[in-house]
Design goal:
Elements: E1 14-17, E2 24-27, E3 32-34, E4 40-48, E5 54-65, E6 68-71, E7 73-74, E8 81-87, E9 94-107, E10 110-117, E11 121-126, E12 129-133, E13 137-139, E14 143-149, E15 156-159, E16 162-163, E17 165-170, E18 173-177, E19 185-193, E20 196-206, E21 211-212, E22 217-220, E23 224-230, E24 240-246, E25 252-254, E26 257-259, E27 265-272, E28 276-283, E29 290-297
């Protein structure tokens, strides 16, 4: 089966084909518009009229909003973009509208009027929206601020569907902590609320590092040593699991390592098992791998022969 390619058009650039002569209209008004205190909203569209014989000075554009017709004006410096400042009634939060285009075309020595109508569009006011996220990339554990409007204490931020620790600062500001996800990738960021999910943008997670207080581990069989693990930012909710593996599993005895929620360090005990030498591999989602050499020494000390030791048995050959 052959694959088809589709052209994705943003909501604010809906293109409608009008009846006649390939004339098109592109709606430049977003479907969702942030509510503003003045209650006035700019509505605009662009036209393409390819008729060679069109009489340009006769081109007029109008917008019909909820059944009421309004003239549109040509945007200064443009030949085909028309605008209208709509004063929405206080008791409304949405409007349905379409565009009308009138112009004359020459037929020989005479002109003939044409009126073309766009498809029906809808504009909705929203009283909650995101203006900006203060960065587009950060490591695991970093704190990211979001500025917007209409936030509540119940709002949550999700990164690639994973809910992040979210803090309500004010109706105009939220803050979240980057959750533990694989580094060197970009993930979609969404605002989750009771009214649905809102896409904010994308966040690239850069790799962070895990520091260990020992450059190398040297213990004897049965001997124990304390290792301290440290990260640059606070551990997320439910803590950060540190994955510690080794290529000499019979030589290393170690407990599970979890940095508690809100902490940056944790200590763990490592105990020498069978004699051997290898490495510890320390990592977590979103963190670079840290490698620490490990050596477990044999603690067996052979008993030395004592020449003064009394011999209970003497072979006959020596007698």
């Amino acid at each position: 089966m052959k694959r088809k390619s589709f052209l994705n058009l943003p909501l604010f650039a809906t293109v409608g084909l009008l009846a006649g002569c390939g004339t098109t209209v592109s709606n430049l008004t977003p479907k969702q518009v942030p509510q503003n205190p003045s209650g006035i909203y700019a509505m605009s569209m662009s036209t393409h009229i390819p008729d060679a014989d069109v009489i340009r000075p006769t081109v007029e554009s109008r917008i019909v909003i909820d059944g009421q017709e309004h003239p549109m004006s040509l945007k200064p410096g443009s030949r085909n973009i028309y605008v209208y400042e709509y004063d929405m009634p206080e008791d409304q939060n949405e409007a349905k509208y379409y565009y009308l285009i009138n112009y004359d075309v020459l037929y020989g020595s005479k002109s003939k009027p044409k009126e073309l109508k766009s498809e029906l569009y809808e504009m909705q006011l929203i009283n909650r929206y995101v203006i900006t996220m203060d960065t587009s990339r950060a490591p695991v554990g970093a704190r990211i601020s979001i500025v917007g409007r209409g936030f509540t204490e119940f709002d949550k931020i999700a990164i690639n569907g994973v809910e992040a620790d979210t803090f309500f600062t004010s109706p105009n500001s939220l803050m979240f902590i980057v959750p533990s996800l694989e580094a060197n990738q970009s993930y979609p960021v969404s605002l989750i609320s009771g009214t649905g999910n809102m896409h904010i943008g994308s966040l690239r997670i850069d790799p962070s590092s895990i520091q260990v207080n020992q450059k190398k581990v040297e213990v004897a069989q049965g001997e124990k040593m304390i290792l301290l693990f440290q990260i640059d930012h606070d551990a997320p909710k439910r803590g950060l699991m540190i994955d510690v593996t080794t290529d000499v599993p019979d030589s290393v005895i170690m407990q599970e390592v979890i940095i508690p929620e809100g902490a940056r360090t944790v200590s763990a005990t490592i105990e020498g098992g069978e004699a051997g030498a290898g490495k510890l591999f320390i990592t977590a989602p979103g963190f670079k791998e840290t490698v620490v050499p490990v050596t477990v020494a044999d603690n067996y000390v052979p008993e030395q022969f004592n020449e003064d030791m009394e011999m209970d048995y003497v072979p006959q050959e020596i007698l």
